[in-house]
Design goal:
Strand order of the largest sheet: 3-2-4-1-12-9-13
Helix content: 10-25%
Number of helices: 4
Order of helices and strands: EHEEHEEEHHEEEEEEEEE
CATH architecture: 4-Layer Sandwich
Strand content: 25-35%
Largest sheet: 7 strands, antiparallel
Shape: globular
Radius of gyration: 17 Å
Structural class: alpha+beta
CATH topology: Glutamine Phosphoribosylpyrophosphate, subunit 1, domain 1
CATH superfamily: Aminohydrolase, N-terminal nucleophile (Ntn) domain
Distance between the termini: 22 Å
Length: 259
């Protein structure tokens, strides 16, 4: 099973603490050794780092871990290959443009016998994940034409498209356009919203703690989504299988069943 990590905030925030534990799952505390990637939105731009090496010993991952990039939306992925060879073009997260916005997508699972309707969005690699991403974007464009809808209208359209794909297998995914983050759970996905009063968090994969009271302001709010909880002393909320959550400004704004 691949590993997903997402962050959505109301202020630009660095993900160094969460990424430290997440990085260890790429070959150190877990078996996923088939590449990793992370995308940071910065304004209308998006900074993407990809590496087909295991994240536990990737020089690029070491750079990201110690580079406090501040972003309001982050999507990261550690890969265990099921379809497609281990190669840069098959490394998540994937990026496309729609409505003049960058879109970032990462998938955990395996889709068997899925035949996508691609429209103008074509896969570069050979994964089921990238094909599903292109299918979703083509479906959203068909629903809403040339103008980007409001987040909740888009969320409804996306949830209507998901079952057609999810019936082919496991379809946990994260999707963001830099303004919000959508998390869909097929098997395992949990989230936590950190806000005042802040406290100390301890990583589950490394003996590392951080006191968020020293790094935050009263109004800050940060939502973190992961395949498995990254900390062992906080209460994470599991997302119900077959459901999606829309995160805006660090808040779980809406939930939908996608069945």
């Amino acid at each position: 099973m691949c590993q997903l990590l997402g962050m959505n905030c109301n202020v630009p925030t660095d993900i160094c603490f969460s990424f430290s534990g997440f990085q260890a799952r790429g070959g150190l505390t877990d078996e996923h050794r088939d590449g990793w990637g992370i995308a940071f939105f910065e304004g209308r731009g998006c900074r993407v780092f990809l590496d087909p090496l295991p994240s536990c010993n990737s020089p690029v991952a070491a750079l990201v871990r110690n580079y406090p990039i501040h972003s309001r939306n982050v999507v990261a992925h550690i890969r265990k290959a099921t379809q497609g060879v281990v190669a840069l073009e098959n490394t998540h997260p994937f990026q496309r443009e729609l409505w003049g916005q960058y879109w970032i997508f990462a998938h955990n699972g395996n889709l068997e016998h899925f035949v996508p309707r691609l429209g103008r969005f074509l896969p570069v690699g050979s994964t089921d994940s990238e094909a599903a991403f292109c299918h979703l974007l083509a479906g959203l464009e068909a629903c809403h034409g040339t103008a980007a809808p409001e987040p909740e209208a888009l969320f409804d359209s996306l949830c209507a498209l998901v079952p057609e794909i999810a019936r082919h297998g496991s379809f946990n995914f994260l999707l963001s356009n830099g303004a919000w983050l959508i998390a869909h759970c097929s098997t395992k996905l949990s989230y936590i919203v950190r806000q005042a009063p802040f406290s100390v968090a301890h990583l589950a994969d490394e003996d590392v703690s951080v006191d968020f009271r020293e790094h935050t302001r009263e109004a800050d709010r940060v939502a973190v989504v992961a395949t498995l909880p990254l900390t062992d002393n906080e209460r994470w909320t599991p997302i119900e299988a077959g459901s999606a959550v829309l995160f805006v400004e660090g808040e779980a704004l809406a939930r939908r069943r996608c069945v």
